[in-house]
Amino acid sequence: MTQASSTKQPKSARTQSERREEAERRILEAAIRLVVDKGYDRFTLADVGAKAGYSRGLAAHYFGKKDELLSAVAQYIVERYRDRPVGADSAPPGIDRLSHEIRRYVEQSPSRAAQALGVLFSQARFHPPLARAITSLNQHTREIWEVGIRAGIENGVYRSDADPKGVASLIHAFLRGQATFVGLDPDYDFARATDVFIEMLRHRLLSTEAPP
Questions:
Q1: Highest mean pLDDT among 24-33, 85-94, 135-144, 178-187
Q2: Is 118 exposed, middle or buried (0-12, 13-18, 19+ CB in 10 A)?
Q3: Which of 11, 65, 120, 133 is least crowded, fewest Cβ atoms below 10 Å from its Cβ?
Q4: Predicted confidence band at 180 (pLDDT cuts at 50, 70, 90)?
Q5: Over the Cα atoms of the chain, what is R_g?
Q6: Region 139-154: what's the mean pLDDT?
Q7: What stretch of H or E contains 100?
Q8: Mean pLDDT for all residues in the chain
């Protein structure tokens, strides 16, 4: 009897953990939908819980305050994107891999998650917990781009006088800027802007001419 009980306890603990993980995911997804449909200020934590199919108090129980929940939403969106498998990730650092990664980001711009992230970026300066989360995410994202540029320089595929930090900041600013056009300017041509931007990077990173 004691042995049977001991074998069941880990299974019960895992099930409870899995249930919480599922509930948190559904709450985060519900928050994404509400941010896009209603903006930052026109819904409550109770609305999120109800939208997720749970009690109206569960979102507050798990995340505390609305700013904390939306900080978690921003991190969830970015981490979910980073976790997506990409065939070009195995390619060596270079302009082809860089172009692929940039296009992948841009292709996500019309998605609901990307639209929600754009709303959160615009509100971050007014909400300190969210601002801290967004700042941390931005810094980490720029560091990832910078690492790739430095690797390309070290491998000899990029020009030796390229500025890794400056190029990384430029890429980050371009990609974040795309989110401001989603849903606002139907005539904005994401593909054309991306092609021109990549060509500019190609010249900056590969050209043997002296930089301007």
A1: 24-33
A2: buried
A3: 11
A4: confident
A5: 21
A6: 93
A7: helix 95-107
A8: 85
Which of the residue ranges 56-70, 139-153, 184-198 would you say has the lowest mean pLDDT? Answer: 184-198
- In sequence order, the 6+-apart residues with CB closer than 8 A to the CB of 135 are 124
| Residue 188 pLDDT exceeds 80 | yes
Contact yes or no for 30/72 (Cβ under 8 A): no
Please list, in sequence order, all residues whose beta carbon lies within 8 angstroms of the beta carbon of residue 62, skipping any fewer than 6 positions away. 20, 23, 24, 27
Q: Where are the domains of the chain?
A: 2-64, 79-206
Helix 190-206 and helix 95-107: axis angle, to 10°?
Answer: 160
Contact predicate 77/119, CB 8 Å = no
Question: How far are the Cα atoms of 29, 38, 66, 145 from residue 23, in angstroms, in the given order?
Answer: 10, 22, 16, 33
Question: From CA 175, how far away is CA 171, in angstroms rounded?
Answer: 6
- Domain 2-64 in CATH 3.30.1370? The answer is no
Say which residues have a Cβ less than 8 Å from residue 149's Cβ, sequence separation at least 6: 93, 98, 158, 162, 164, 167, 168, 205
Name residues whose C-beta falls within 8 Å of residue 163's C-beta, 6 or more positions apart in sequence: none
Q: What's the confidence (pLDDT) of residue 185?
A: 78
What is the model's pLDDT at position 5?
47
The H or E element containing residue 102 is helix 95-107
DSSP 133-198: HHHHHHHHHHHHHHHHHHHHHHTTSS-TT--HHHHHHHHHHHHHHHGGGTTT-TT--HHHHHHHHH
